[in-house]
Amino acid sequence: MPFVLLYLVVEIVAVIALGSWIGFLPTLLVLLAGSVLGGMLARREGIRAAQAVAEAARSRRVATSEVTDGMLVAAGGLLLFVPGLVTDVLGLLLLLPPTRGLVRRRLVNSAERQNPGLRTARIRSEGPIVDAEVVESEPTTPRRTGAPMVIEGTVVEER
Hints:
- By secondary structure, the protein is an all-alpha fold.
- The protein contains six helices and no strands.
- The chain is elongated.
- The chain starts with a helix and ends in a 38-residue tail after the last helix.
- About 5% of the residues have low confidence.
């Protein structure tokens, strides 16, 4: 509940400030133009994000950045539908590729800091996807502490 009140106060203050600076009609035009431009941009960037995910799947790459971009585009589109000047500006910023890239990098870095295991999993991996099966077995010889693990197997190429 306090968040909703804070949101309303911030939006009202922003609209009043803009209206007192440029006038009532120009403020309405800015709000309308932001919605129209944002809708067109959200559609275009949403299609691009979907195509990037499909291309990553076709080339058998991990689509981490493509999926993250798609989620940020969806968040930007959602912010454009929420009435208000501040949410429109935030939504438009998420729809622009340069600012979306900055937000994506900050989100990934934040996730890696909060969960150090993600860093070893390489959340940004761009390598090929390998289908494999983990088989648990007792090692025949005990491993020394700190010694590297050896994985034995055969690489089979699909054609």
